[in-house]
Design goal:
The complex is a heterodimer of chains A (about 350) and B (about 230). Chain A is an alpha+beta fold. Chain A has helices at about 5-35, 50-55, 55-65, 90-95, 95-105, 115, 130-140, 145-150, 155-165, 165-170, 200-205, 225-235, 265, 315-345; strands at about 175-185, 195, 240-245, 275-280, 290-295. Helices cover about 40% and strands about 10% of the residues of chain A. In chain B, about 60% of the residues lie in helices and about 5% in strands. Chain B contains 8 helices and 2 strands. The chains are: A alpha+beta (about 350), B mainly alpha (about 230).
Chain lengths: ~350, ~230
């Protein structure tokens, strides 16, 4: 190959790649000019650009043909040509493994991918909160109805449904972690339900600093038990930590698992199983990012996680020893006095003792 | 003729409502202790089959104890009207009575000396008992019951829980209070065996009647009604 030809290739290939990239990027952004604006398109065609831009789908689209990566029936004349967008790519084209897993679940007959997931706002399991996961489920499984059904066998059904993502019990995972979310009441309210705090609310409190600094005081990206205590006892804010037991790996094999009828599946695993926890913080794009928390923080007796306690599992070992010491203290009188009573029994012979 | 005077050697000490309360309370607290052990240490204690069964039984026993506590409170305040007289130590009790009773239990009892306190329906408890029962019935049992009721209703009473300091503090408090009640149980049962016979105090709590012991030596205090004295 001549030097001249090589030179042409070196110029043309990058130019082509750049043009494709610019076209793809331009296409996505161009589409979002209308589809990201509620005044220009109907609600069912509206895409939240902030959420979308951080999805894996957006990154794949940007790296290929923009929105046409999945909607390849669209032309440059859309919407003037009157052709509606079709999803010509199937979820299974990329997610065959999930499809195989899902097809074996009890859900497969009743719901397709799109019934739970919005492909324009699909995030990884650690990027969304347990509350959001449950909202997906509640689209079909109405909350009050679920509480009523679970209450037929499950003690504190409302509490369980409020404080657990459905997938914790209805999918299988080898391990579970505690994920903590920062929650707050509505502004100005002293009573009532807590809602996950938004990025903007936390940003205001952080005063321009990274919102992680609200908990991670020394800025090392790791939350120690001491930092958790400081956060929980800080009276200058109205934030609280809400813990949820979440699967370490989220799967799609939705089912009613036999071992979940037995409360001891979660409640008898003992303190050793409750060592790993994370703090999930909201990000500007609406997703969550996890920060690692010191091992065993949820077992702290007082201020590690004041509102998170799982009977049996998150018991504090020191408190257990104190309790045992108190009970043994109650045996001092019977044993000590009883021994002396036995040794001095002759003194009371015939005196009615 | 009053109940106290029906039999020369017998005294009607425990009226029916008190006995019902006591045995309901006893059954409830023992059940709470055992189920509570399974709830906190499920890896080591499995007496009631499933964890759910232990929780349901624990909750039921807790409600029984709360109801029996209400019966006790209602009876002594509204029916008998002797709550203050029986359960609140008098000035005399605080100044001398507690010390005198402690000296008996920890010293004179072993020497075969008589009990300085003589049980009567209107003065059932010795000064140490009064102080202990005051703390148990007016502090420990109400607190362990209240914390238990809150723990049974975490979702609807969340605001209240947060005012207290959170679920974890509440659960820890409930556990330590329950351990204290369990510790008291051992002492309570042991002290009940210190009558003139080991079962002398158990029988009246079942039948209502306590047998008074005849006087043994002239140096002992006399029962003003029967001319008999009781040794505990």
């Amino acid at each position: 190959m001549s030097t001249k030809t090589t030179g042409k290739i070196l110029v043309l290939v990058p130019t082509f790649v750049l043009l494709v990239w610019i076209q793809a990027w331009g296409a996505s952004e161009g589409c979002l000019n209308c589809h990201g604006d509620g005044n220009k398109v109907k609600k069912q065609y509206l895409i939240d650009p902030v959420h979308y831009r951080n999805t894996a789908h957006a990154k794949i689209a940007d790296a290929n043909f923009g929105c046409r990566t999945c909607h390849d029936n669209l032309s440059d004349r859309h919407p003037g040509d009157g052709v509606a967008a079709k999803t010509t790519t199937r979820c299974t084209d990329c997610h065959a493994d999930i499809q195989a897993e899902y097809s074996e679940s009890s859900h497969a007959k009743n719901a397709g991918c799109g019934d739970c997931h919005n492909p324009h706002a699909a995030h990884g399991p650690t990027e969304i909160s347990g509350h959001e996961m449950n909202r997906m489920c509640a689209n079909c499984h109405e909350n009050d109805n679920m509480i009523q059904k679970h209450a037929e066998w499950l003690p504190q059904a409302k509490l369980h449904i409020q404080m657990l993502p459905c997938v914790t019990c209805h999918t299988s995972s080898k391990n579970y972690v505690i994920t903590m979310y920062i929650v707050k009441r509505k502004d100005g309210e002293r009573y009532g339900d807590f809602q996950p705090a938004t990025y903007r609310q936390l940003q205001q409190l952080a005063g321009g600093r990274d919102i992680l600094s609200l908990v991670d005081r020394n800025g090392d990206g790791y939350i120690s038990l001491a930092e958790l205590r400081l956060f929980n006892t800080d009276n200058t804010h109205d934030l609280r930590l809400q813990g949820m037991m979440t699967p370490e790996t989220v799967t799609h094999n939705f089912q009613v698992l036999g071992n979940r009828w037995d409360c001891s599946f979660c409640h008898a695993s003992g303190p050793q199983a409750m060592q790993t926890s994370y703090l999930a913080l909201p990000q500007p794009d609406g997703t969550l990012q996890r920060a690692a928390v010191e091992k065993g923080a949820v077992l702290d007796a007082m201020n590690g996680t004041p509102d998170f306690y799982m009977l049996g599992s998150t018991r504090n070992p020191i408190l257990s020893w104190v309790g045992l010491f108190i009970i043994v203290g109650g045996l001092v009188m019977p044993i000590g006095h009883g021994t002396l009573r036995f040794l001095t029994r002759k003194n009371r012979t015939g005196k009615g003792h | 003729m009053s109940d106290q005077q029906q039999n020369n050697n017998m005294i009607y000490l425990q009226p029916t409502p008190v006995r019902i309360w006591h045995w309901l309370n006893a059954l409830g607290i023992v059940t709470l202790c055992i189920t509570g052990a399974q709830i906190r240490f499920p890896e080591y204690v499995n007496i009631f089959g499933s964890y759910r069964a232990a929780i349901r039984l624990h909750n039921t026993a807790g409600i029984v104890v709360c109801l029996s506590f209400s019966l006790w409170f209602f009876y002594y305040t509204m029916v008998a009207g002797t709550m203050a007289q029986l359960y609140f130590p008098k000035k005399e009790d605080l100044k001398y009575g507690i010390l005198r009773q402690a000296i008996f239990y920890f010293f004179n009892y072993f020497r075969g000396k008589p009990n300085p306190h003589h049980t009567m329906p209107d003065n059932k408890f010795n000064p140490m008992q009064k102080s202990a029962y005051l703390a148990i019935m007016f502090v420990l049992v109400p607190l362990v019951s209240l914390t238990g009721i809150l723990l049974m209703n975490v979702a609807p009473l969340r605001d209240l829980l947060i005012m207290i300091g959170g679920l974890k503090i509440l659960a820890g408090l409930h556990f330590l209070l329950a351990c204290s009640l369990c510790a008291f149980l051992f002492t309570h049962i042991y002290l009940a065996t210190l009558g003139h016979t080991p079962f002398a105090h158990f029988i009246p709590m079942w039948t209502g009647w306590e047998k008074l012991e005849e006087e043994h030596d002239s140096g002992h205090e006399h029962d003003p009604v029967h001319g008999a004295k009781q040794v505990h």
